[in-house]
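Data availability (excerpt). The following record was deposited with the supplementary files.
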Amino acid sequence: MIKVLTLFLFLLFSLDSYAQNTIHGKTTDENGNSIPGVNVYIKDAYDGAISDSTGKFTFKTSSEGPVTLIGSFIGYKSAEQYLDINKNNIEINLKLIEEISELNAVVITAGSFEAGDKKRATVLSLLDIITTAGADADISATLQTVPGVQKVGEQEGLFVRGGSAEEAKIIIDGAVVNNFFYSSIPGIASRGRFSPFLFSGTSFTSGGYSALYGQALSAVLNLESVDLPARSEFQLGVSPIFLSAGFQKVNSEKTQSFGASYSYANLGLYMAVIPQRFDISQAPIGHDGDMNYRFKTKKNGIFKAYATYSFGKQGIRQESLDSIGLKNGYRVDNANVYFNTSFKQSLGKHWKYFGVASYSYNKDNIDAKLLNDQNQQLMNIGIESLDNVNFSSIATQQMWQLRSLLERKFDGLNALRFGAEAWYNKDHADINSAFFNGETDIEDTYGAAFVESDIYLSKNLAFRPGIRIEYSKLISRANIAPRMSLSYKIAPQMQLTADYGIFYQTPERKYLLFDNDFDFQRADHYILTYQWLTKDYTFRIQAYDKEYVSLVKTDDNAISIANTNGTGYARGLEFFWRDKKTFKGFNYWLSYSYIDTKRDYLNYPISATPTFAARHSGSIVLKKFWMSKFIGINWSYTVTSGRPYFNPNLPAEDFLSEKTRVYQSHNVSVNWLTNIFKSNAVVVFSLNNVFNQKQIFGYNYSSRLLDENNLYVRKAVQPPTAQSVFLGVFMSWGVDRTLDNINNNL
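Predicted structure:
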């Protein structure tokens, strides 16, 4: 027993003799604040301790000589300190630097509205785009319910913060789309060519956008196509006005997919049932087809190819304002081809590559005629304004684009992106008119290089500087466009962002046919954004000032460019609120925009508010989904104050001084999820302008006929119908979208 006790005491004192060195200290952050709960230990040893509530720690170790002391804690980068243990009672302080991650860091937004499933916080979902009442599953129409985008019913395009449609660019997988919208008839807006189901992500930036993009004075809509479908499927759509079918085939390894679709639309029956404001000479007919191929590489890269073809025709006749008993006929036949290939691939641990090549071709065959009451063409009657109605042209536009981008990731969320792109545009027109007969050709080669960096100064402060250098061969000019964004996280889910940038755009090529020695157009953006964003709520206020430093000025007939000395401004305040939680199965958003804008451009005699800008505009969008019945009801209300219109009866100093009546529209749609022929089906019904409110977009005036008050005769520009109705069934075999609808309304 004595021997055992002796051996035990010997071992006890021996162990104690090996643990004579004490290490103590304190754990703090970079600001000197104590961090409790830090795991402090010696590398490759079992000795260590946990810091207490004051950040202090102490422990004994038997280690001697050079060692590495490590402090680790969730949310911070591990701190390492080299020690030489040669004495007892060593004091050391460990400073831990907070680790920046997507979960806790400020988000550099540049004031964008994003939609999709890849972002950790989005304002709109892709299902919102599809189901918003009044938008008819058109991406651009849905965006008209968010702040900054004007409702301009007589012309297609995105009109953003006092900018014309030409000032907004639409991009698919990094490549600009030259003819995103179908060709239209004057006074009747057309919709976009591309289905929202093609895209997994949508980012709309109404100002201050990234240096990665250019040639847009106002805004950029960036669309990202679907990478790889979840599974194979077949789709069928049926309605009184169209028939569509498509499929997606995914291989068993889920590394490749191939798909195609075709749709045929004919509005003849619709126009025969629904009263039209125009005499229809050719009911709109359209054929659309597309194919896609996707291949996933072994290193999480993906190659995507997409091709589409469309052909359509439409024509109308309406009474001539310059004569009694005569008509103006207008018809357009359009053919369009678009091809896009993109590739993205990780290159090692820190690098990523993005590349895209695209080609687009658009052909418009336009035929305008002066007609008698028997719809026969009249020519050379000796009255200039009437003879000028006769016009025909065959116009083609082609665009090639190449783009490459490299991204380097650093510690935290810091990143560097740089790349270059080149565009080649070629336009040709064969024109036959009273004032010009002949052919026109114009080409432009455009190149740009860009660099941009995400710099996280802390988890609460981030800076994104960027610069873009551009050159246009057509005008023989180059520019340098700096951009920057500074975001500060005030509190969880709450941040402030300040954006500044210079944005250039080449004048429209149609103005450069006879002279091209002109400079770029230019706009400077200043934006301040406050945003509170959670999973269920979004609150955003933006104030902005857009200064137009250089705009196109034309001759009196707005045919050829005179100079780029035009100027203007757009200043405003915008508000957005979204609530997806307060009422179960019910979500809504509210938006309001105020704008003060004037410009002196084109053939404006003075600086004036343009016809596409309303001082006040707002939207209310409501969505209710009954999960037990699989029925969703969507309602939207849009209101804008009157927009300016040109009245030739007024003197030049009153140019664009008169405004239309207030525009209002109530819209409703119903979606019923059911099963038809063993398919997952959605039955859709929609009615626009429910209360049949009178909508006026502007006025057209006669150039020669006067009324009883000795004023030029006029006619209101209105939608083709007072109300529009749609009924359709969309069936899918292979993919059940029921959960998408349910999850969007939880």
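Summary of structural features: Helices lie at 2-18, 126-131, 139-143, 268-273, 384-387, 738-744.
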